[in-house]
Structures are given as C-alpha cells and as structure tokens.
C-alpha cells in the first residue's frame, strides 16, 4: 500500500500508471495481476499483455509485498511476552490473568502472501525511532495498540510515565524516544450533552485541540477512530446543528454516522496540512466491530471462537463497518492528492477480520463482579493478534525512512 502511494503521487508518475495504481489500491478487487516491462532501453515502464508475436522485454522486478493481505499461520514461538513479563496491560485486555482457558489463540502470526513480515524487533524499533516522538491519537483501540507496543518493547526497555489532563506520556531515556497517547475518540471537538449520558455534540469542522495542540511535537502521528461514531451524536458544522444519529431532531436530515466519521477524518487531515505538520501521518483503518455472534453487544452477543478464520472464510464487510472503512480510504486518498502531508496508510482491517478468537470476551473481568459488563468483542487480548500491528508498523517505518 505504501508503494502504491509512492507510485501514484511521485513527481514522475505517468498518468496511465497512476490510473492502474488507483485501481489497484482502491477498488474492492484485492489484486490486479498486471505484467510490467521496461521499454526505451529500460528507462520507461510499459504494460503489455502477453503475446507470442514478440519476445517479451526484460521484466521489472516485482513490486514490494502487500503486507496487509495474507493469512494467519501457526507459530509455536508466539507470543513474545506474557502478562507476567509486561506490567502495562490494561485489566480488561488481560485475558490470561482473568482465566481464559484456551491459549491456542496466541500461537499464530500474520503471514502476507508472497513474502514474510519479520517478527517485531524491539532493539531495531527503538533505534529506528531514536530521538523521536510518536503520538497515538484516537480511542481505546489506539490505546490498545500503544500498550501492545510497550509490552513488545518491555523485553529491552521500560519507560518513565508522566501524565496531564489529556495526555499520557512515556519516555524511553536510553533511546530518547517519547510516546504520547491522546484520548480523542472523535478526532474533532466534542462534548457530552448535559442530561443525556452517552450522547455527544460533534463539531465536525473543528479539530480536537487536545491532539492538534501537541501535534507539532510528533515525528510520527498514528491517527485512528471508528467505534465511537456509533454512539448517539448531534452533528454541528459552522456552529449550526445539521443532523444527528440515534437522537431526536426537530428537522429532517439524512446525515448518518458514516457522514460524521468521514468528516472527522477530513477535518483532522486538513488541519494537519494547514498546520504544515512536518512528521509522518499514519492513518490506521478500522478494527472490526462485527465479531459479536448470537446477539448485539448489549443483548448477549459474544465471541467464543478459538481459532482464526482463513481468508476465504471471512464474510465481506458490510453496512456501517464497510462505510467507515471506505471513508477512511477515500479521505486518505483525497489528502494524498492535495499534498502537504507525508502520509502512510496502515490497513490491518482484513487481517483482523480473520481473528474473532482474539478478543477478551468475558475474560476481561471476574465472573462474579457486580457491575454492568458486556462481552468484549471490540478490544484485543494482550498478548494477542493486535501485536501484529506493531510488526506492520515497524515494517512501514523502516520502508519509508
């Protein structure tokens, strides 16, 4: 995917090649099998269909592997840490502590088609991002991702923690690496509605200052968000109420949560461009919301599977989930076309759709706890499948440096 955008938006990209790359990156067809050949003495690329009328020109070296398309394969060496070796696992993702009986879900790794994705190397990661700052901006899944990273790094280093009202900051002194986690589930300015617990006002054209104010400190900004856009919300633009989702309005509006999600990413990316953000922006696509079986999350739904799906067993995304995913791809593409940002797309969605076995389910709390708790089929056990996100992240940052 990173290669797609380098080809598409590089200054020497030919128009016809851009069209091919657009199709390859943004249609629902996973792969377009095209053969490329050198022409003009090896200085230009040309696409030709196979023909017995002429000898083929020397082939171009194959493109780099798409690390986001593949299968989960057995791996007896996983996991790289446990809840006993990492003390930063949040309680409700600590599946081993809460007695999950089946641990086979830990014995898999992500294997892209046609190449290998190296196991996360904590020394290499810290050396790569030495003297730099990484910002995770989003919701609890951004935090889940960050905690996976700190657990993987715990094999070689432990951070010092500081916190402010809006930020948790981790500093690895030996490498001068700083990691921020900024809670901003909507990416735009939001406020809970007084008297309506769980309902929010979303100001879709105003970026959330909690993360934008500290963004200049970041060398890498990981931007994500999806789940919170399924909550009761009122939509504001230009200071005016323009629509809402799951709330009563005194006017007719056809705007949905897919609109609010799209506009939030658009606003965030445009705000970064307007601020002349100089680091890399890594937009992470959504983590599945559809692994509940036997009911909705608040109606007895659960995720009790004990092994991954294969790619050909995975049901296609649809509905809100597909809408959110599509809007992320399209807003990323639009921002890349406009320029002004160093952008990378991190697309673990397909890989995670295959892991209904990797959620906490009931193993994020004790069975006899007297509080309203649902089976958790949204977050990921630590250790667990989400550790592959950091395999992907290290690969992407290595390739783009």
Automatic annotation (TrEMBL):
The keyword Transport does not apply. It is found in: Golgi apparatus membrane. It is a single-pass type II membrane protein. InterPro entries: TBL, TBL_C, TBL_N. Residues 64-116 form the Trichome birefringence-like N-terminal domain. GO terms for molecular function: xylan O-acetyltransferase activity. Its main location: Golgi. The keyword Secreted does not apply. Residues 117-396 form the Trichome birefringence-like C-terminal domain. One of its GO terms (cellular component) is Golgi membrane. Keywords: Golgi apparatus, Membrane, Signal-anchor, Transferase, Transmembrane, Transmembrane helix. It comes from the Eukaryota. Belongs to the PC-esterase family. TBL subfamily. This is Trichome birefringence-like N-terminal domain-containing protein. It comes from Paspalum notatum var. saurae.
